[in-house]
Amino acid sequence: MIPERYYQALEPFFSKTNGPFRRKIKDCYYFEVALYLLDLLEISDPNGFRSLMSGYQFPCLDLDNWKDSKHYELVTRLRYKREFNRMSNKYEWEKRIKEYQILPKIIRRYDITDSIQKLETSICPDRESLFREELNSIPKSNLREVKFAEKGKQYHVKYKKDKKIDVNILDHHISTQRIAQLEFENENPKSFDINWIELEIIARWIDKRFEELNLPSRNYNTRLEKIRLKIYNNSSETFEKTQILSLENVSHMIGMLGSGKSTLMDILAVYIAQKGWHITLVVNDVIDALNKCDFYSKLGLLANPILSTQKERKLEHLRRAYQSIPQEEYNSHKAFEWLNTSCALNLDDENGQGLDVSHYPCQDLSRIESEKSKRYVCPLYAQCNFHSLEHNLSKANIWVITPAALLYSRPSPMVSPTRLYYWELAYQKSSLIIFDEADRVQLQLDNYMSPSETLVSDGKSWLDQLHKEVNDLLQKGQHQKYLVIPDWVKAVNRSMEAYRHLQEFLAMDFVSNRLRKYPFFSSYTILSSVDHLCKGKESDDTQELSECFAKYLATKEPMKNIDFESELQQLTVHLFAGEEFSDLEVEVWNWLSKQAELNKVYKTSFEEIDVRKEIVTYLCIALIIRVLQFNLNRVIVDWGSAQATFPELKELSSDIMQSWQRNLSASIPKSPIGNIIGFKYILEKEKQVRNNVGDLQFIKLLGMGRYFLSHFSTLKLDSHQLKGPATLLLSGTSSSGESPSYHINLPVKYILENPDYSKSLDIKFHFEFFRDQEGKSIKVSGLHGPSRFDALKKLLNCLFEINEGETLSLIKKRLLNLEQGRQKILLVVGSYEEVRIALQHFSKIKHNFERRIVGLEKDGYHSLENVEDQYIGSRFISRGKVDRFKDFDADVLIAPLLALERGHNILNEDHKAAFGAAYFLVRPHPIPYDLNLGVRRLSKWATKQSSNRGFGNGVSYIDIHKKFTNLAYQRWYAVMKDSNTLSRLPDHERDEIVWDYLVTIWQLIGRLIRGGVSCEIRFCDAAFARITSGLDKPKGQTYDDSSTSILLNFRSILSDFFSEKSEAPKQQITITKAMYRPLYKALLNISGI
After folding, report:
1. pLDDT along the chain (1089 residues), means of 10
2. What are 546-558's pLDDT values in tens digits?
3. Which end of the chain is more exposed for a tag (fewer CB within 10 A), N or C?
4. What digits encode the pLDDT tens for the residues 820-859?
């Protein structure tokens, strides 16, 4: 709310007949507060506000001074206030400057030309005191109103778009029982030291408690005795043994696979709970959360799993629980209490069938006699079994949650009236938060912050629905609402218009084929292609954009009817005016010819008809995309206001508009290239046959997801004066060289070691490729569709078929030679689809395994319903049950690489790894032009650059940000041009991606060395070593090296740390040797290459 004094002073100068004048006064107030902040920080450039709101803390003198004077706290507070966050958007800020400058000077405090200048005014002359109050006010979360349905009144609940069920609230429905709300009065410690002896006491207590309950022993005391804790000593630059675990701020702890990280996490959770403090554990998935909370509950502790708050997801979680939890535990496992799906009101639909879970009336009861959209809560909410997960949430000392629920979910207003999400609640409530497999969490966070939405697909997707819904609402007599958000409605209509123009071009084969190759495109990337075509094939496509295109991209609006800043704006207007393409082509071509005369670097032969058509077409597409980008951005920026005006739009709220990302993006830096919109075009084969027009997705980069992890304990320190919990990042591979996905850019403080475990490891690597009947090496990697499946089948034939004159297949012979008790083999493929293809193929070849080959399937996927062959369907095991593979009557498991790389201990009766060998049938292969990988590579670059004091030495914060942004754009477009084909990448770029795959493969091998046992790993895809297998025959090279074999590339990047002449930092050398020595030894001694 703006101060009433400010409003009353300015009100007489705003026309009450010209639109929503109160909104204009409000805009003026917030804009002047932003200018006041810039003046306070001695920043004269008005665009400096957007730099400040980026959230980066570049190490420079400006920032040091602002922090000393507490002024930086003011900046962080504004990022949490929606009005100021909206202004950080380029288009919105430029719009505010324009609107402010046309106001009468008599009411303005500032004048903006190229710089900010103060004006004297007698209208509200003391307004700066109001601005100071605004800047000093700590952001508060709005409270949610809770109104329970009352006895004797009639309500209804919607269960389909146009159907309702009447609900009468009777005497027996009324209850005064309420769920206890979350409280934060008792301040839990946020830093503490733990003596290892205290943890040993906890471990013995856990074992004793399980003995008293007659439950199978977990051997926590024995497991903890084997663990050694080491802390980094900065003076000696070595890791030294310690008995004290000191937790404050963010602590990075690594431990080799099997070193006891999970054991330590469980013991720490019990330690914190017994102290009466609060702890949050962030684990991989829902089943992990349920199992851990059941374990803590058996110990008599109050533990609560936190799952998605979407009602329909509860059924999915319940199905997964039935698939993953042993049947003999159904009666004792608390998961089935937490996942109860019964409704206390027990309502039926018009056909007498029970309501679907997604339509339960929990918080969605509406008064029959009221037309207002107000919702009422079921009076039985606190007693209803459906909400049992919330009943003890406020009392629980242990929360266990997945990364997605941590970010996306928040409790109901009955538990927490605030609008805070679980990450914010954990931030305030917990003494300690532990991120298990922290490197994978980092990858997930980066992915979450680059969401996408299908814009248009066969007339059924988001933009179509939005356009139709808005115009239907206006036709139904809601025209008065149009006056509240006219620009937003125009942006929706203009976006749809732009797509329809684009659709005409997408029907052209050469356009469709080109756009499909882009992983991500925007008006910039298309104009870059046009510029490159104009400059000729010899030109370097990394050259700067020609001035005519750069000027157009710098314009504030792509379409203007007057005062064109660029001739391309005029062409854009004509394009949207519906001119015939032939006329437009002439006009565009004349403009291009004029540029060719002015631009001496244009060398292309403009006489070539095909080239001419291509250039004109892509220029038109670039103009259309600029309009689409500009207007979609407005739709997104003003979505909150639009939804408040049209509540009916709630169902169309995409991930890109959801409030979870607004709350989070205020706490982390923005994307280094700004929160830009880009597009991806997908044309599937069936659509290509039908109408040649595919799906258009749009992507928005919301912020630096990995910052959330590495700075969790201080996310709200400056803005809200709130210290976060001690944060422990746990992983076995979070120190991983140049990996853009898994390496966490934080110094490692602790190492966990299990000396007995690491000494006994003996891993044997073999490169073993096979040839088909024609003598060709069998390669799976890099192939797609039927050709890939055929290659996979050929490999299976070589391994499993019984040759003439033999009684056993090759793999059967090797199985019998494995260590007793570990005679099981893992076959590693690339996807669940390949698992099914392989199992289908086994029914067609002669082998020795009968029904002893099993495929891994996703939790919740019912193979018998999806695969016709009864034999195949009966030989699947769900991912959630794979830990009990020893109880399954099988010798061979086929599984995708990424499905088993972490979190699964597949053990035998002796609690050692059940698999004695693994066969990699597919070499990991990067997805060409992978957008998510591109985002992670950019985030890695930004993390390093933004913390590098030498990056902006002696330069102002604003200048550093401008330089940083320019370099970030260059890095982004360079990354997006990479196809990710390993053989084509420069060495340093290839090593980044190879580090990712080293981590993935090493994590999976970790499943085979549990218990400190040996294992045998065979790499069967010929692509693992292209020269040895004969796939490549380069002149002058007879042996593989790191450019032709990913296995030798693994060895090469590790040797940089194991070499006596290594120039890597001493700490990193120590860590790499501790984490990867067994892997490096296996790579040194690999056979077959």
Report:
1. 92 70 90 97 94 92 88 92 87 88 94 92 95 92 88 85 82 84 81 98 97 92 95 93 98 90 97 97 94 96 91 81 83 92 86 83 83 81 91 95 94 92 95 97 94 74 85 72 75 90 84 76 82 65 65 72 70 79 76 71 60 83 90 83 79 71 86 83 58 76 94 92 95 95 97 81 96 96 93 96 88 94 96 94 82 85 45 69 86 94 84 95 83 91 87 82 90 75 81 95 94 95 97 91 96 95 91 94 97
2. 777 777 776 767 7
3. N
4. 999 999 999 999 999 999 999 988 887 878 778 999 998 7
Strands 750-753 and 303-306, sheet pairing: unpaired
Pairing outcome for strands 452-456 and 695-700: antiparallel
CA distance 100 to 517: 43
> How far is the CA of 98 from the CAs of 88, 113, 556, 559, 916, in angstroms?
15, 10, 10, 16, 70
Of 192, 178, 123, nearest in space to 146 by CA: 178
* Residue spans per domain, the chain: 4-136, 192-344+380-448+709-753, 452-703, 760-926+1004-1025, 931-980
Whole-number Cα distances in Å, 735 to 495, 540, 750, 962, 1074: 45, 37, 12, 31, 11
Sign of the alpha-carbon dihedral angle for 93, 719, 74, 446: negative
Alpha carbons 244 and 228: distance in angstroms, whole number: 11
**Cβ of 153: how many Cβ atoms within 10 Å?**
14
Following DSSP, what letter does each residue of 407-473 receive, concatenated?
Answer: HH----TTT--B---HHHHHHHH-SEEEETTHHHHHHHHHHHTS-EEEEESTT-SHHHHHHHHHHHH
CA 359 to CA 310: how far, in whole Å? 11
Q: Give the CATH superfamily of 192-344+380-448+709-753.
A: P-loop containing nucleotide triphosphate hydrolases (3.40.50.300)
| Helix (H), strand (E) counts: the chain | 44, 26
Closest alpha carbon to 711 in 960, 423, 932? 423
- Rounded Cα distance between 688 and 701, Å, is 29
Tell me the DSSP string of 458-498: TT-SHHHHHHHHHHHHHHTT-HHHHTTSHHHHHHHHHHHHH
Fold match flag (192-344+380-448+709-753 vs 760-926+1004-1025): yes
Look at residue 523 and give its three-state secondary structure. helix
User: Sheet holding 432-435: strands in order across?
Assistant: 238-241, 228-233, 750-753, 250-255, 726-731, 432-435, 279-282, 398-401, 303-306
The tokens describing 998, both together, are: 């080293």
Judged by DSSP in three states, 255 sits in strand
DSSP letter at 1064 equals S
**HSE (side-chain half, CA atoms, 13 Å) at 647:** 5
Q: What is the largest CA-CA distance in the chain?
A: 105
Which tokens sit at 1047?
């296995």
Task: Return d(Cα 578, Cα 568) in angstroms, integer.
Answer: 16
Given 3-state DSSP classes, what are the helix, strand and coil percentages for the chain, each rounded to the nearest 5? 50, 10, 40
CA distance 517 to 161: 39
E-only strand ranges, 22-92: none
Please give the share of the chain, as a percent, with pLDDT higher than 70.
Answer: 91
What does the alpha-carbon distance between residue 46 and residue 785 come to, in Å, rounded to a whole number? 54
> Around 466, how many Cα atoms within 13 Å sit in the side-chain half-sphere?
27
Domain 760-926+1004-1025 falls under CATH 3.40.50.300: yes
Structure-block tokens of residue 525: 């990337």
Residues 1016-1054: tens digit of each pLDDT = 999 999 999 999 999 998 888 999 999 999 999 999 999
